[in-house]
Design brief:
173 residues; alpha/beta; globular
Length: 173
């Protein structure tokens, strides 16, 4: 049995860049500690957009160019990047089908007991990937460490945590 930690979108643009928040900055040391102390596999995701971002549906709904591939904002924040031993899963959407496929393959090799998610943003990409992982592995315990997540706003962070709990995702602090 194995446990997996998924570090969601701990990128410069979301921490202290164009879409950063003080709450995002505050969780960085907690995320670093979680990675350092985690005894299973650690996977990372990276929000990834192209130069055509403003022409995409997301760009029309959130007209703030961010995480453009190859820019400093797209890179993992330095404290997290220093611990990243594998290539992040680049994802052009909130939830990553590639991540779901990857954990499904890992589960075939060795049963996954739990998947814990940390990162940004609770109310967009963390919830999307938690729900997606629950769909790919419905009998695997999916956990969100709320103390290692931050949302667009504190209220939307709490709303997302409540929504995930209703969907049988374990929310822990």
């Amino acid at each position: 049995m194995q446990d997996i930690l998924v570090v969601v979108d701990m990128q410069n643009d979301f921490v202290d860049g164009v879409l950063g928040t003080k709450e995002a900055v505050e969780i960085v040391p907690k995320v670093v500690k979680k990675i350092q102390e985690f005894s299973g596999a650690v996977l990372y995701t990276r929000d990834t957009h192209g130069p055509d971002y403003m022409q995409t549906q997301e760009g029309k709904n959130l007209p703030v160019p961010h995480c453009i591939k190859g820019t400093e904002g797209w890179e993992l924040c330095p404290a997290v990047a220093a611990l990243c031993a594998s290539d992040p899963v680049d994802k052009p959407t909130f939830g990553s089908a590639k991540l779901g496929q990857l954990v499904s393959e890992m589960n075939k090799q060795e049963t996954i007991r739990s998947i814990t998610l940390v990162g940004l943003c609770t109310d967009i990409c963390v919830i999307s990937n938690a729900m997606l992982l629950k769909a790919f592995l419905p009998e695997t315990e999916i956990i969100v460490d709320a103390a290692c997540c931050a949302g667009v706003t504190p209220q939307s962070h709490h709303n997302a945590l409540a929504a995930m709990q209703v969907c049988q995702i374990q929310v822990k602090n």
